[in-house]
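## Example record

The block below lists the input lines for one assembly entry, exactly as stored, with component labels intact.
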Amino acid sequence: MTTTLQPPAAPAASAPDGPPARTPRRVGFGSKLSAWDLKLSPYLYISPFFILFLVTGLFPILYTGVISFMDWDQIRGSGTFVGFDQYAYVLSQPAFWDALRNTFSIFVLSTVPQLLFAVFIAAMLDQNIRAKTLWRMGVLVPYVMAPVAVALIFSNMFGDQYGIVNTLLGRIGLPGVGWHSDTFASHIAIATMVNFRWTGYNTLILLAAMQAVPREYYEAATVDGAGKVRQFFSITLPSLKPTLIFVIITSTIGGLQIFDEPRMFDQGGTGGSNNQWLTISLYLYKLGWGEWNFGRAAALAWILFLIILVIGALNLFISRSLVRDEGTRDGLTRAQRRAAARATKQRVAAESTGKGARS
Amino acid sequence: MSVIDTSPVTAAADPTPSRRRPRAVRGSRPGWFVYASLGVVLLAAIVPYYWALLIGSGDSSTIRNTELSWIPGGNFFTNAAAVLNNPAVNFWTGLWNSIFSSALIAASVVFFSTLAGWAFAKLRFRGGPWLLLFVVATMAVPTQLGVVPLYILFSEIGWTGQIGAVIVPALTSAFGVFWMTQYLRQAVPDELIEAARVDGASSFRTFLTVGVPAARPAAAMLGLFTFVTAWNNFFWPFIVLDRQNPTLPVALSLLQSNYFVDYSVVLAGVLLSTVPLLLLFVFAGKQLVSGIMQGAVKG
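Predicted structure tokens for the full assembly:
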């Protein structure tokens, strides 16, 4: 691919030992090739991504849509068209609504405390502490543990009978909680796993945003007599808004797809005897690879996608109205960035006409 | 020391008295509260690991013992051996598959992302900005949306149960392309490319001599990040692989089944499976930390 493009454009490099068959036959052939090289190579560079995305991304997405309208036959490897029947089936199942409720419940229980903790820990790390890198690394330790491993450890700690959590509750005279029988309790247990793994990660993102706040603000505030707490609420928190929204959006997308933790929460992996912790992804797996009904699984996949789209749009809408007048990350306002882009464009245009005149 | 000391004890303990001067402003050292909070956080991060060690080093009765012991037992290696040698778990196959697939995925993602990022950041071509927008948009598409046809596709060509089915869909990443684009945009001055072009370098040669060296720090972080993500990935490998040829998380999931009611063995296996990544983290954690923080600012 690249060899055909290379040698003629670099005559100096290819002169001594270049392949003799490739010597330019006509004057100007080399520059023609080099023009192609410049024109074509960007597309070549980005093509691996797009080709692979076409095969493993776009085609499956569209084909999921096709399958969702079918009663898919595993053995024949084809389906018969049934219209919206699969969607109607999925939406009529109580399990789907359980899964929807559980997904949102676990998502809220994991996002809200996680962000509160992350902001707090980031504020601690933002101080002028000793051994900064060590603390930062320490915060990230849970992140390198696989979700499956986290789930196995925590489902043991949250054991109904012998779990450490219930044992400790018993020590202080409280009754044990049915972590694997009660719906809400199971959500708390699963959300704890998510929080354990992701709080440190979000902490570092928020810490980065905190460090981008100009230190002069704090100095000025100190001179004005504002304390640490006041500075945090009046300076730090407002500057975090864009990053907070970014973190909320990413954890929403992740949270709606939660699978690993609920799947590993008990030995059955089916989401509890009464669907206490069945999530949408887990239900999708159950439909597709438990009941081997690909049509229904595909319909559920599309429903999940639509939910994510709606929430994403909602997020974007809310964040836009919130962040409108905040400074952007690169320190430029939108107008400034546009002006810069226009200047570049003009420069490019001037350059290309210059080139055209030359050739 | 010109300042009158009200607490001579702490002053004596402080080895660098010169640091005292800027204490009025933000550069000052924080008090005990900060360290105490961070200590609690660190403890919370480590407790689950330690708990796995406690149970994993005991025997099957440890879990039922209501008298809490905070000292590990002596059975860890027995339990670990029970996992390692169990033919139903295929731990070694899983370990090899995880190393192999994660390394290959990381290498491929880094290469293709650098290439595409270079094109998006530094080359001008028709439709470029739109294509980049498309790449970014694909990041919001959930994995679940593609799994059914992907599974059908791979079972048609007989790849279900093969590690290739895990590797191929992950060979490129939209996040990676976006990440490298953002980085290269500011890391390479346009003049450098123009200079290379004036010298007669071909497009690909320019990429190799100008782009690749500049991309190295971001590429290292992307590689590390991709490796960790690939290593911990579960949903798709769990669907497409079987117990004969698992990755490590899939092998772990087999521990949580009715065959293994002995939690000591299960948690010994869990701990064992986290060792490789913990080792990686010890050596490269600093890069991972700065990578996450850098990605956040550029995001």
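The CA atoms of residues 41 and 200 of chain A lie 41 Å apart. Chain A touches chain B through 112 residues (CB under 8 Å).
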